[in-house]
Each structure stands twice: as C-alpha cells, then as structure tokens.
C-alpha cells in the first residue's frame, strides 16, 4: 500500500488541473455568448457623409402690357377713346400686347371692370382674343364678342413663357337687334389681364 503522503501528492495535481480548467471553460463560454449576441449586428454596419451646403431660390410671376409688342411695357396702358365707332351690328377693336416679365410660365386670363352704369355699358358685348399679330385684330372677330361687358371673364388664353410676348385683341360689339337708348352714350371700363403661374 502506498504511503499516505504519496496519495495526497497524487491527488493534488488532479485537483489543480480541474481548478485551472474551470476559469478557461468560463471564459470560453463567455466568448461564445458574446459572439452570439452581436452576430446580428453585421447588417447594421453603416457609414455617413455630408453634402456641401446648398441654396434654393423662388421664381417670380409678373406680366406687363403695352399698345404694341415692340412698345414700352408697364403696369397699365391706355387704349384711347373708342368714340363713334360702335353701333348695332358693328364692332370696334383695339390691339395690345402682354409680356411675361417674370421667371415662371403663366396662363393668361382677362376680365372687365365696368365704370359708371350707362345704357351703352348694358348694350356692349366684349371678348379678349389671342391673335398672332396686331394686324389680325380686326372686326372679323366680332362673332367672339357675345358676353355682356359687366360680366366678362376669360380663361383659356395662351400660356406665356418667361420673356414671351402675346398679342391680344379687345373686341366690342353692340347686338344688331339693339334698339336701346345706347346711341350717343358713352361707357368706361377697365380690362384686367392676369397671369397665373403654371408648371413649366
């Protein structure tokens, strides 16, 4: 039988070996758990970059009017006095031009604001017609003027690009069947031309 001190000596190394393996096992488990917990984050890796500063500016919408396409454009224009030219079945016309002085395209429109009520104002029929040039603004357009002056409003006039110019014709008539006291009377009114921004 082996001496007691030899038995104890044989057990000690085995005990020390188990003690040394214990921490290793715990560390290994910890590493495995650590990778298992972060393995799903690979897809979440990301990066970022900055763009240099940018600026944006708005456009402008503006129109002006003139007696002629080559004239001086402003906010108002006088068509003069159209005296003694209109009667039952007859028409009087006045040409003018509109220029887009803004940076956005516009859809043109027109309306009429009557002045003081009069017999002639009640009799007048009006239209604003797009024409290719001032020479096309003639009494031949009389059939276009069917709306009473006091309630006239036009839409559907051409679109006008920036810096573009459009010729328009104001047409005034008195119906051929009119027998009112409009003869010898006068009427005043203002034609308002509008430009509404549209997509380019």
Low-confidence segments, given as residue ranges, are 13-37
Annotation field: number of helices: 2
- Give, in order, the helices and strands: HEEEHEEEEEE
CATH architecture of one domain: Sandwich
Calculate the mean pLDDT score and round it: 80
Multimeric organization: single chain
Give the structural class.
alpha+beta
Which sheet architecture does the biggest sheet show?
Answer: 5 strands, antiparallel
Which radius of gyration do the C-alpha atoms yield? 45 Å
How much of the sequence is in beta strands? 25-35%
CATH topology of one domain: Immunoglobulin-like
Distance between the termini: 109 Å
Can you count the beta strands? 9
Helix amount: 10-25%
Spatial order of strands in the largest sheet:
1-2-8-4-5
CATH class group of one domain = Mainly Beta
- Shape annotation: elongated
Structure described in brief:
The protein is α+β, with helices and mostly antiparallel strands and 200 residues long.
């Amino acid at each position: 039988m082996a001496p007691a001190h030899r038995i104890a000596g044989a057990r000690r190394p085995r005990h020390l070996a188990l003690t040394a393996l214990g921490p290793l096992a715990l560390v290994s488990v910890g590493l495995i758990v650590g990778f298992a917990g972060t393995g799903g984050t690979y897809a979440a890796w990301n990066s970022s970059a900055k763009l240099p500063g940018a600026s944006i500016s708005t456009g402008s919408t503006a129109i002006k009017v003139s007696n002629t396409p080559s004239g001086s454009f402003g906010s108002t224009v006088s068509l003069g006095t159209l005296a003694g030219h209109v009667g039952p079945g007859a028409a009087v016309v006045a040409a003018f031009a509109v220029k887009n002085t803004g940076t956005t395209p516009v859809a043109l429109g027109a309306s009429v604001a009557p002045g003081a009520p009069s017999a002639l104002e009640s009799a007048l029929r009006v239209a604003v017609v797009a024409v290719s040039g001032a020479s096309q603004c003639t009494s031949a357009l009389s059939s276009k003027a069917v709306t009473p002056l006091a309630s006239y409003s036009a839409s559907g006039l051409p679109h006008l690009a920036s810096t573009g110019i459009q010729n328009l014709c104001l047409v005034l008539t008195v119906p051929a069947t009119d027998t009112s006291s409009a003869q010898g009377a006068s009427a005043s009114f203002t034609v308002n031309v509008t430009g509404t921004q549209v997509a380019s």
